[in-house]
Amino acid sequence: MLQTRHKLVSSMWQCFRNKAQIRQSSGEVVESAVPYDSLKDKKVETPTSVPKEADVVIIGGGSIGCNTLYHLTKLGINNVVMLEKDQLTAGTTWHTAGLVWSLRPTDVEVEMLKYAVDLMQDLEAETGVNTGWINNGGLFIANNQKRLQEYMRLSTIGRVYGVESFILSPEETKQLYPLMNVSDIYGSLYSPRDGVIDPAGICTALTRAATKAGAKVISKCAVTGINTKIDEFGTKRVTGVDTTVGHIKTNCVVNCGGVWAPSLGAMAGVKVPLVAMHHAYIVTERIPGINNMPNVRDHDASVYLKLQGDALCVGGYEKDPVFWNEVKRDFAFSLFDLDWDVFSAHIEGAVNRVPALVDTGVKSTVCGPESFTADHKPLMGESPEVRGFYLGCGFNSSGMMMGPGCGRELAKWVAHGRPDLDLFSYDIRRFSQKLSGNQQWIKERSHEAYAKNYSIVFPHDEPLAGRGMRKSVLHQVLEDQGCFFQERHGYERPGWFSTKLAVPVSLY
Questions:
Q1: Within 13 Å of residue 302, how many CA atoms lie on the same side as its CB?
Q2: Strands 138-142 and 295-298
Q3: How far is CA 233 from CA 229, 236, 253, 381, in A?
Q4: What pTM value is reported for the model?
């Protein structure tokens, strides 16, 4: 069995490499390899001016920016300007896989995702724009009993919010997805509400509704500065935004800049603790019998299989992701060359789950930048450093499906001073100021959070990254006595003691 699987994996791996070599030798260059239409070739004129003032200025025309704009107008705030340095979706939104899953580990996320699916279904009727929503369902695969128990808990949380789901046996899973290998699984979780969304379609629909309500969307207009002042109480506040074609007076800025958010934050003296990484998937050639199959997440194999017409998009979260250390300002509608050695981590899991992939070639590769954070959760809310400066970034490759719910709550944050839902785990203030400016801690913890994204989180699990950075004077004394340390906000604090051996904190 193991020899057969190794043979299948080697065969598919060789197929991928051969495909890449053929394209390279023929000189073929695929500038835009996404498997759907983008807004890249849409003609947009360069503006000659901007409004003199606005109640809110949103920077960034991706998923989060468009959703925030739309929901602000729904709250009656229509004097809103959204600035995009290139065109809508041009940064990271345009190349997203567009997966939408209805079940997540927390009740708040389940509630927001339920709203997201409802909005995606209703937006076309409101705007007349096809959002590209495809409701083909989703399957989570359980390779062990603990994973199946986790799925049972997810199903229970979903039922509270009216999200229907079913625990399936291996045989029932096979009936639903005939091309799947179920010989090594304990069962699966099937969510009929799941699906995929077209990034260009939904962003176009959102902005059309918002501009109809009075908001303004200005493309080809880069931000060159964010003005602040110290008021009579000693508080630093936003006063305006400088652009390539003029100044906008405003006391509220929403940073939805994605991987470019840190540079935008720096203009106002705000630290934005996220990093940019390469995130990739491949698009296969046609697979007979794959039509209408649900999307699949095999968490223990750290791989997803998204239906793409009569083919699949295959991707996941590898253990050793590639950082984009020097973020280029003018990187728009652009992709990186896929590092096949890094991406190979997903091959075995994909082939094992859908053996038909072994005879399938690669149609295109998609490797683009995504922003990731130290705890794999977004950065939202008003900055503690500058009043009137809000964050809506760092969505860890979940910006499409989390966009509607987070955009709604961020709009309420701006309008009312707080969201309706308990979003402390998303609030930028969850990080201490010493940590949000510590680049080593941010990079290490973001790396670990990316690599462990699909892992089961057990009680008392402690991070391995970003350790040993803040210690008490008694740290060594406690360590010599067998102390097992826990990390909280960068501090090493005593957790429990081992009577058998010392447990020193190791560097990542």
A1: 18
A2: parallel
A3: 11, 9, 21, 22
A4: 0.93
Instruction: Please give the structure tokens belonging to residue 83.
Output: 């600035």
DSSP per-residue string spanning 222-265: -EEEEEEEE-TTS-EEEEEEEETTEEEE-S-EEE--GGGHHHHH
- 3-class DSSP assignment, residue 21: helix
Q: Are 408 and 105 in contact (CB under 8 A)?
A: no
Amino acid at 210: A
Grouping H, G, I as helix, E, B as strand and the rest as coil, residue 148 is helix
Angular region, 133: left φ>0, alpha ψ -120 to 50, beta rest: beta
What is the H or E stretch that residue 297 is in?
Answer: strand 295-298
Q: How far apart are CA 60 and CA 85, in angstroms?
A: 7
Model confidence over 218-256: pLDDT tens digits? 999 999 999 999 999 999 999 999 999 999 999 999 999
Complete DSSP assignment for 420-477: SS--TTTBGGGS-HHHHT-HHHHHHHHHHHHHTTTS---TT---SSS-SSB--TTHHH
Encode pLDDT of 407-458 as tens digits: 999 999 999 999 999 999 999 999 988 889 999 999 999 999 999 999 998 8
**pLDDT higher than 60, residue 28:** no
Tokens, residue 188: 């699966």
List, in order, residues 6 or more apart from 222 with CB less than 8 Å away. Answer: 83, 85, 243, 244
Q: Are 320 and 341 in contact (CB under 8 A)?
A: no
Residue where the block lists tokens 């510590």: 438
Distance CA 472, CA 247 (A): 48
State the Cα–Cα distance between residues 270 and 22, nearest whole angstrom: 47
What is the chain's mean pLDDT, rounded?
92
